[in-house]
Amino acid sequence: MAKTLRKKSVPATLPEPMPRRVEPCVATLVDKPPKGPEWAFEVKWDGYRLAVHVEPGGVSAITRGGYDWTKKFGAIVAEARKLGHTTMIIDGEAVVLDDQGRSDFGLLQRAVGRRPSSHDAAEIIFFAFDLLYLDGQDLRMMPLAERRQLLEPIVSGRTGAIRFSEEVRADGAEFFRVACEHGLEGIIAKRRDKPYRSGRRPEWLKIKCARRDTFAIVGYEPSTAPGTIGRLLLAARKGDGLVYVGGCGTGWSNKESSQLRELLDAIPAKRPPVALKRKGAFFAEPLLVAEVEYRAWTQDRKLRHPSFKGARALDEETKVYEINTHPL
Q1: What pTM was estimated for this model as a whole?
Q2: What DSSP state is assigned to residue 122?
Q3: Among residues 44, 72, 190, 208, which one is catalytic?
Q4: Span 232-256, mean pLDDT?
């Protein structure tokens, strides 16, 4: 009884210690958007997940893996100091937008990389989508809708390095269709009535857009398993020739891998069909094509996260992807 009385006597406004790190809530991948008014939808940003910690002693940017990347995100850190609160933990995604307003992971990698780049670190934007701690209060047990009500007036309307990740009030299936048509990575669905839980959770869902096209197979890299393929080497058409667009190392069974290798070994190329030097690679005449599902193009015109879906012989009716006529 004494313990119960003491617990009830604690004021609701008593400051709670600010966590040094909060393991992020991670969305579960599903095939289609959920239905129901309890779900909120947002754009799926393609960037680095960050928690921005604001304290009287300074601001830090912590990655999903727990690394301190404060120095890489100077503009975000500087703006976080001006948000008007003594202590905060904001959950969000750091991105770089392309000229069509879409987040582009390749541009982000260049902006934070050590190599010289046409993209400056000042172009990085932090899209804030959750508030975990505010002015001495841990908010994680609050429903998402209430956390975002507190977050919105802090970051909404800003056009600098920190911006609000808006909820899209629409039917999930329709929003997903439009997102994919506009070349976005996908959408996120979140339960409005749930607290914030670390780790991969069913109350946060991600639905990814996928592209599917046909590419010429110009060779392979052997696998460590005898008689099988480690990576298929793929090419697209560019003008009258072929250009290398990356390797694909997933999507087939062991049996399919062995069959592919037998087919390619039977059509060796006298010289590489594409400008590529790769130690240990076997080059084949581009007489076979692969159906490949992938997420996007990188800035150096390579397929991002390709997955093999099937192969067939190249014929007059087959159209190999043409770099000249398709936007990247």
Answers
A1: 0.72
A2: G
A3: 44
A4: 93
